[in-house]
Amino acid sequence: MTTALRIPPLRTIVAICALGGSALLMTACSTTTGSQAEAAEAAPTTASPTDTASPSPTASLTKDQMQRRDLVSKTKVSWDKAAGTAVKEVSGGKLMGIELKAASQENSASPGTASPGTASPGTASPGTASPGTASPSSPAPAPSPGSPEWQAKVAAADGTVHMVDVDAADGKVFRNQAQPGQSADDRRKVADRLRKATQSPAQAVKAATDKKKGTVTGAMLDESDGKLVWAVDVVDTKDWKKTTYDVDAASGKIAREHTDQD
Q1: DSSP character for 201?
Q2: Closest by CA position to 237, among listed 81, 80, 72
Q3: What's the structural domain count of the chain?
Q4: To 10 degrees, the CA torsion angle through 77, 83, 84, 87?
């Protein structure tokens, strides 16, 4: 007797095919996911250029700090040489102050006329005039606007204050003018102040630079808390910040210090 071959129902065949397809799809997905993970592990990590870029040194400086950097970098004549030149321009001159500044348009356009009573050439320490017979001198051409200059205040023997400007690049005097409107009482006060300042500007600068190394950009005879002091400005050429030291003009001790963060 012949046994007939039984064919499964159509729904059974479809179900078997569906199960087989699902198994193949899961295997393919698993293989793809594994390959992607392996590729991600194998790929080197690259940092974004913006993550490692360091800020520009110029970008971190303030406007005042950039101005100090520009002035100091262009200055060829130190404060003491400029001071020595300035006091020689005034008969019996004594330094009352000196400061590094940018030349103004006014000074550059019309250099001052040297006043009568300038001392003859010679060597002088800052704060004292060289001996000799006073004689007038002709001012040198003024530096261009923005160039560094030393602005000095020098007192004559009678207490008359002169404004003496020295080119910070070549050391030449381009202006020497007596301060206008000085009365006899004003001159007496100036002479009295200088008499009480037993510490020279050079001694005050040494006291300041012993405390902090840097470039001296100013030394002015002033008053602080009722005391006569030399206010000495020292610029740190690493960060271009300025520190002012008030040095007691009688004892030579530092009474106060202040760092300008701008």
Answers
A1: H
A2: 72
A3: 1
A4: 140
Residues 6+ apart with CB under 8 A from 226: none
Residue 35 lies in a domain: no
Q: Is 58 domain-assigned?
A: no
Query: Hunting for tokens 């019309």 — which residue is that?
Result: 110
User: Is residue 137 within 8 Å of residue 90, measured between CB atoms?
Assistant: no
User: Which domain covers residue 161, as residue numbers?
Assistant: 63-260
Which burial class, exposed, middle or buried, applies to 131 when counting CB atoms under 10 A from its CB (0-12, 13-18, 19+)? exposed
Question: Is residue 134 a part of any domain in this protein?
Answer: yes
pLDDT at position 25, please? 38
Q: What's the CA gap between 207 and 8, in Å, rounded?
A: 110
Of the candidates 177, 216, 204, 261, the residue with the CA atom closest to the CA atom of residue 77: 216
- Range with the lowest mean pLDDT among 114-118, 144-148, 232-236? 114-118
Q: DSSP state, 53? A: P
The amino acid occupying position 235 is V
pLDDT band (50, 70, 90) for residue 43: very low
**pLDDT grade for 57, boundaries at 50, 70 and 90:** low
Q: Which pLDDT score is estimated for 137? A: 55
**Phi, psi (rounded to 5 degrees) for 156:** -75, 175
Q: Is 54 domain-assigned?
A: no
Query: At residue 148, does pLDDT exceed 50?
Result: yes
Tokens of 191: 């002479």
